[in-house]
Amino acid sequence: MSLHGKTIVVTGGTSGIGEACAREFVARGANVVMASIQRAEGEALEAELAAVGRAKFIPCDVSDESQVQALFQGAKAAFGRVDAIHCNAGAWDKGTAEEFNEAIWNKVMGVNVKGAMLTAKHGVPALRESGGGVFLATTSVAAHIGFPQHAVYCASKAALEALLRCLATDYAGLIRVVGISPGTIRTPMLAATCQGWDKPVEQLYAEVAEKIPVRRLGEPEDVAKAAAFLLSDDASYINGTILTLDGGTLALPPW
Ligand SMILES: NC(=O)c1ccc[n+]([C@@H]2O[C@H](COP(=O)([O-])OP(=O)(O)OC[C@H]3O[C@@H](n4cnc5c(N)ncnc54)[C@H](O)[C@@H]3O)[C@@H](O)[C@H]2O)c1
Known about the structure:
With 255 residues, this protein is of the alpha/beta class. The chain has 2 domains: 7-183 and 219-245, Rossmann fold (3-Layer(aba) Sandwich), CATH 3.40.50; 185-217, no CATH class. It has 8 helices and 7 strands, in the order βαβαβαβαβαβαααβ. A 7-stranded parallel beta sheet has the order 3-2-1-4-5-6-7, sandwiched between helices. α5 (151-170) links the parallel β5 (133-138) and β6. α1 (16-27) packs across α8 (220-231), α3 (65-79) runs parallel beside α4 (102-129) and α4 (102-129) runs parallel beside α5 (151-170). The termini are far apart. The structure holds nicotinamide-adenine-dinucleotide. Residues 11-12, 14-18, 36-38, 60-63, 88-91, 111, 138, 140, 182, 184-185, 187-190 line the site of nicotinamide-adenine-dinucleotide.
């Protein structure tokens, strides 16, 4: 599962799952570029990781094409090549159809779907220049579950999974395209989804954990270890596959 010497671009690499992935990849000897809209967090993480390995933060809004283009130019300028992309940046919002507005659509679809398409558009040429590589995206079990009041988020993740299958066939032989579909992972995004309930977040987490077959929430490091495997050459025959990482949630019978 070596990532030694590979240059990996992680979008949303400064919080939650993406941050854990950046830490894991650096620990395994990769050159890691973290990209996100969190400038302060990114600069702090770069300083911390650059002390133990090779890491660079590049500010980037993945829904803005010129910034995504600049991201890959910056990654090549920093490390000379791009071997893998972890398309992980994600945005979340909730509301019923009657509460829907363009701002919610543009934020959630703009990051989760358009952002992924732009990451592929500008990432694929960078991978081709390196002779090929891996494109990994963080999808969600939300692609397959109708979470109450989450129509736009769920639709965005279903669209992302469809996009991955198409990329896997379009670039087969050059780029391996894979996904990780997490269940309930303890991150700032999960905490945000728990705001506004009549219970403290930790109590909600405990109640949710009881409903997950393995009786715990997922940790960002659980995702990072799986991501490291999927990006490594040990996964060289895995293409077009989306790995569910949910402690058995989707396997649970509905009664
Ligand atoms: N936490 C969960 O339970 C869970 C479950 C399934 C899937 N996911 C997915 O995992 C991914 C990471 O989420 P997380 O839970 O770590 O949340 P998080 O909020 O901790 O991290 C989200 C990251 O995306 C970045 N981001 C948001 N908008 C961006 C934009 N316009 N351009 C660039 N970066 C942007 C943020 O800066 C942050 O670094 C997301 O795609 C999310 O949908 C999370």
